[in-house]
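Board notes, transcribed. Complex of a protein with ISJ.
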Amino acid sequence: MARSKSDPSSNSAPDKGAAHLTTLRGQIDKLDLHILELVNKRASVAAQIGKVKADQGGDVFSAAREEEVLTNVLKAHEGPLSTVTVKAIFRELISGSRAIQKQQKIAYLGPEYSYSHLAAIQRFGEAAIYNRTANIAAVFEELIRKHADFGVVPLENSTDGRVVDTLEMFMRFPDQVKICSEIRLRVRHHLLANCAQAEVRRVYSKEQALSQCRNWLSKNLPNATFHPVSSTADAARLVQTEPNVAAVASREAAVRYNLGILAENIADSPFNETRFAVIGATDSTKTGADKTALMFQISHTPGSLADVLTAFKQNKINLTWIESFPFREAKGEYVFFVDFDGHRDDTRVKKVLAVLEDMCESVTVLGSFPLARADGE
Ligand SMILES: C=C(O[C@@H]1C=C(C(=O)O)C=C[C@H]1O)C(=O)O
C-alpha cells in the first residue's frame, strides 16, 4: 500500500529512530569484537600461567587468586551492569581459563540440577566436567580415588542445620581431603507441575525441602499428600511420569524437566541458604579474608570444651560455626567441628592451634579458604 503524507509511518521521526538504532547496534558489534579480542588475550595469558604451574607443580584451581580477581573487578565496577551479571561473566571467563590449563572434574551429589549441582556450577562454571554421585560418601570417594579433582558437599542449611553425612565423612577420612573453598547458595524452592494447582494430589520433594515449605504447602494444597524422594531434582523428574503431581524444586529443575512453575519462592522462611564446602587435595593460600575449619576431639571431662573455647577467646578469634557429633568409637565422647575467622598461617591462629594440640585428644585442620560471598553479592 502506498503511504500518504498523513501516514505517521512516513514521517521522519521513526526513520531517524531506525537510523539511530542501526548506529547503536553498529557500536555494539564493534565493542563485541573488541571484547572477544580481550577475553581471548586474557585466556592466552591464563594458558601461559598454566604452563608455569605445570613446570612448578602448582594446582590449576586457586580459590585465593580467583577471589583476588573478583575483588579487583568488583572494586572497579561502576555499572550499569549489575554485580550479579559481572560476577557471572567473570565466573565463565575464569572457568574457561581453568579449562584451557586443564579441564577440572567436579564430583557432586546428584542428580543433575540438584542444589549441590547448582552450587558446583556457581563455583566452577560451565567449562568444568561434572560427575554426579548417588550419595555424599561417593563424592569423597571419587576425590580420594582421584577420579575427580574437587568435590562439592553440603555443610549446613540455614533452616535444617548441619548435614550429618558430610560431617561423618570428614571423621572417616580426616587427613585425606581438605576444604579449599566454600559456597553460599540461596535455595529458592518453587512448586513445579504440568497441571493446575487445584489438580495437584501428590507433591514430591526431598524431605528437607518439604519441611522448609511445610506451612505454604498445607495452606495452599490442603488436599494433597506429601512424599519424600531422594532429591528435589528426582522429584521434578517424577512429575513427568505421573498425572496430578507436583514437585518442590529449583527453577533449573523446571527447565531441565520441562515443567511449569505454579508458585515461586514457597519456602516458609524468606532466607534459605545452604553452605557447601569444596573439597580437594589441598586447602587455599591466604587472602586476608579467610576462614578455617577444624575438627577436634576432647576428653569426656568437665570443662574440656570450655577450655578450648577460652583459647579462641584469648586469641581474639571469632567462631562462626560449632557442631558436636557423637564419636562412634568411644561412647559418650564427642567430636566438635568449628569454623572461625582467620587463616592457619595467621599468627593468632597458629597460637590457638598449638594450644589445642596440647588440650585435645586429636585436632585436624580441615582447611583454610577465602570467606564466601553471599549468593548474589
Ligand atoms: C589463571 C590462573 O588459573 C586459574 C584461573 C584464574 C583466572 O582465570 O583468573 C585464576 C586462578 C586459577 O584458578 C591463575 O592461577 O592465575
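The pocket of ISJ is lined by residues 46, 49, 61-62, 65-66, 69, 94, 97-98 (CB under 6 Å). The chain is about 40% helix and 25% strand.
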